[in-house]
Design goal:
- This protein has 263 residues and is of the alpha/beta class.
- The protein is built from 10 helices and 9 strands.
- The strands form 2 sheets. The chain has a 7-stranded mixed beta sheet, sandwiched between helices. The protein has a two-stranded antiparallel ribbon with strand order 3-7.
- Helix 5 runs antiparallel to helix 6.
- The two termini are 28 Å apart.
Length: 263
């Protein structure tokens, strides 16, 4: 992984790695990395691979070159799945896995997420969503990164329960090409049952942190993972949406939990 695709926070040793969602939403975990770096060194890889396999190998290189030892892997949204797959593929490199706002691990839970989001959108937003989807699928659309960024903004709005006022907005480099290619891989993994099955290869303790207002159903994470993981805990945050670090009522508890897990 090139230096420009890896951010470092705090001092060595880098014992924590945060993994962004999307796929293709590089940079969104910066607020979490900055906060945690007050107590430990943190790596924030900005994934560029266009397949799940390529992203796994990017993450492996970032850890082996910069950490040199097993790390605590903190994955958000799609990044929770990627971290889950990574911990199953390279168990010796992960000492603890923390999943934040993970998507459901079975196909039926993905449909539930879409239904919840659609129900929260206003009529005009539903029309915009349909239009954006058509533009994203059209070969005539030139700047698809802008389309993906707007889709992300729509979902961020309906995914939040009681968000804090956003001052300086975190710069997120949205990549439509990464989103489309990696997400297809990820959907295929879930639909085939292989995603959940990978959990049987994970040896480290796993903690899932999930907001009760997150459109990704909590039972779609807790129940399947209880079946396949040997060391698993599920923590539900009340009055909390998909991104706990922007939630007025849950942010403090969220970081208290993370600091406790990293102690």
């Amino acid at each position: 992984m090139r230096a420009k695709h890896l951010r470092k926070y705090g001092k060595r040793p880098f014992s924590v790695v945060v993994v962004h969602g999307g796929p293709g939403a590089a940079g969104e975990m910066a607020p979490v990395a900055r906060t945690l770096s007050a107590k430990c060194g943190v790596l924030e890889p900005l994934q560029t691979g266009r397949t799940v396999g390529e992203q796994i190998e990017e993450l492996k290189a970032a850890i082996e070159i910069n950490a040199g030892r097993p790390v605590t892997l903190i994955g958000f949204s799609w990044g929770a799945w990627l971290s889950f797959i990574f911990a199953a593929t390279y168990p010796a490199l992960v000492k603890k896995l923390i999943l934040i706002g993970s998507g459901g691990y079975e196909e039926k839970h993905g449909r539930k997420t879409q239904q919840t989001r659609m129900a929260r959108l206003k009529p005009e937003e539903k029309l915009e969503l349909k239009s954006l989807g058509s533009l994203l699928d059209s070969q005539a659309t030139k700047d698809k990164d802008v389309i993906v960024a707007r889709l992300g903004a729509l979902f961020t709005k309906v995914d939040a329960y009681d968000p804090l006022p956003q001052g300086k907005v975190e710069k997120v480099a949205c990549r439509a090409d990464i989103f489309k290619s990696v997400w297809k891989d990820a959907q295929d993994l879930r639909a085939s049952g292989k995603l959940l099955e990978l959990g049987k290869n994970i040896r480290c303790p796993v903690v899932a942190i999930h907001g009760d207002y997150d459109p990704h159903p909590a039972q779609g994470v807790e129940k399947p993972l209880l079946r396949v993981l040997k060391k698993f805990r599920f923590i539900l945050l009340t009055n909390c949406g998909h991104r706990p670090w922007i939630e007025k009522q849950a942010k403090k508890r969220f970081f208290a939990i993370l600091n406790e897990e990293l102690a």
